[in-house]
């Protein structure tokens, strides 16, 4: 009988019954006030007169009027670089304890984002909220006695000038609470490994010794790890190794395109729970089973604003125009795409995180990620978000009974005509021409702007199928396997040329 599991489950269930009803809008007002009060004496707070904003009758409006939008380049050049020069109290009191190295979808370490102790605490608190939310998923008591395998970047952080640097998954894992260490797999030694292939080999070797109940990590790398564990141990599916596996906490990208290939690695269905942890903070998590939307963490260390996703407001490089209007949580509407803007306890202010979201339930503050501002495919007016592209790939998987865990595309000029050129990662037999026709037909029916574009400047669709390994090899070419690196869904023509040359050289 799972005695400890019953105790933990009982505590979570009781806490859920005693919890008061959330008021996300009021929580966000409190978060903004707390951020402004804490940072008013920093260089940033004095420059933008946070003291005056705090005295305003409408703080959110005064805040939006006083402070410009910042993408990473702007805030880094104007403010965060001072931290590297030894200055204190720049955009947040003191100096940050960590810098998150954000590889994103570039395959290169391109950003160094401050992570304060307050943010580490906020991430941990959001994780605890997610654990409490498991009461909604009716997990059996024995689940709470099983191990949780968290697959992320190395926890062996680099010491640089009085602070530590690493990817956010490594920073978070290096700060797990003591009570959780008994559940945490693959353990501190393996988690500290920087070499992805060595780490996965060690996991595969030790996997039969662990009783894993839950998995957590980016889908693409999680699939590769599970494939290695299955192959090394000569079994048909992962439940032969971990019969008590019941939950996978996904994150980093939409799970939809991976669902079919991921499920093929299982012996039976498990519960999939989405999370939204970025280098800038823990933004949202799925709090209930009857939706795949995620609830914004509105009472933590992040204040949210939302800019309507209108092509007139988006610059060519994915940044926002100065005149783009922002909305608060009290002003948003359902099923509209918004560019997500955050201000945080790590000293990010009106920061463009690069994602677009849509609300599925405003009262609960539940959202779906719909795409990336830089991956919005609007060449010749086709206006396709990553969400629409994901839907199209899932349609192909269903129509042709194939698995397509990875893809990328480009609006490419061929003989002076534009084509949408897709690369689909699949190990299944498929006819490229038939896939292209099906993609084209689906997008015409699902998106009126695409249909108009196809009648004018967009000449057609081309599809090339490749082994999915090409995508992980592309991401790993700069020794960034297994971290926060995610595949570019939409590429510019120069990057796409590199990709096509890479694929040809790999064949």
Automatic annotation (TrEMBL):
Residues 297-362 form the GH3 middle domain. It comes from the Bacteria. InterPro entries: GH3, GH3_C, GH3_M. Residues 389-492 form the GH3 C-terminal domain. This is GH3 auxin-responsive promoter family protein.
């Amino acid at each position: 009988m799972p005695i400890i599991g019953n105790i933990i489950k009982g505590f979570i269930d009781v806490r859920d019954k005693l919890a008061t009803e959330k008021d996300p809008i009021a929580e966000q007002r409190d978060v903004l006030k707390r951020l402004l009060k804490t940072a008013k004496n920093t260089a940033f707070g004095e420059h933008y007169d946070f003291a005056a904003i705090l005295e305003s009758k409408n703080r959110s409006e005064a805040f939006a009027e006083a402070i410009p939008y910042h993408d990473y380049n702007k805030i880094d050049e104007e403010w965060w670089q001072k931290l590297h020069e030894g200055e204190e109290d720049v955009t947040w009191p003191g100096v940050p304890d960590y810098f998150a190295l954000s590889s994103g979808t570039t395959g290169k370490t391109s950003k160094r984002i401050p992570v304060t102790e307050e943010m580490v605490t906020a991430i941990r608190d959001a994780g605890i909220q997610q654990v409490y939310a498991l009461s909604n998923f009716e997990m059996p008591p024995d689940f709470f006695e099983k191990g949780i395998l968290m697959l992320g970047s190395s926890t062996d952080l680099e010491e640089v000038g009085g602070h530590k640097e690493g990817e956010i998954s490594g920073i978070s894992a290096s700060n797990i609470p003591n009570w959780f260490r008994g559940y945490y797999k693959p353990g501190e030694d393996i988690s500290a490994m920087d070499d992805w292939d060595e780490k996965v080999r060690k996991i595969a070797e030790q996997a039969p010794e662990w009783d894993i109940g839950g998995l957590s990590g980016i889908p693409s790398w999680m699939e590769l790890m599970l494939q290695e564990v299955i192959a090394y141990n000569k079994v048909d599916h992962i439940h032969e190794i971990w019969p008590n596996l019941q939950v996978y906490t996904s994150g980093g990208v939409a799970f939809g395109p991976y669902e079919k290939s991921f499920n093929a690695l299982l012996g039976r269905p498990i519960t999939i729970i989405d999370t939204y942890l970025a280098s800038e903070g823990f933004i949202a998590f799925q709090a209930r089973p009857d939706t795949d939307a995620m609830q914004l963490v509105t009472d933590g260390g992040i204040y949210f604003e939302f800019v309507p996703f209108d092509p007139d407001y988006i610059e060519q490089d994915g940044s926002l125009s100065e005149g783009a209007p922002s909305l608060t949580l009290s002003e948003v509407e359902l099923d509209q795409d918004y560019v997500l803007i955050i201000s945080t306890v790590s000293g990010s202010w009106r920061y463009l995180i690069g994602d677009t979201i849509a609300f599925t339930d405003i009262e609960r503050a539940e959202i779906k990620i719909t795409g990336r501002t830089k991956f919005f495919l609007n060449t010749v007016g086709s206006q396709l978000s990553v969400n629409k592209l994901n839907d199209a790939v899932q349609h192909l998987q269903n129509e042709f009974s194939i698995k397509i865990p990875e893809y990328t595309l480009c609006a490419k000029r061929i003989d002076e005509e534009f084509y949408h050129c897709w690369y689909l990662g699949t190990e299944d037999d498929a006819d490229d021409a038939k896939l292209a026709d099906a993609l084209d037909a689906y997008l015409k029916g699902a998106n009126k702007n695409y249909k108009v574009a196809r009648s004018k400047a967009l000449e057609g669709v081309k599809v090339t199928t490749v082994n999915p390994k090409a995508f992980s090899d592309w991401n790993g070419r700069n020794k960034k396997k297994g971290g926060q690196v995610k595949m570019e869904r939409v590429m510019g023509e120069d990057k796409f040329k590199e990709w096509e040359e890479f694929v040809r050289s790999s064949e």
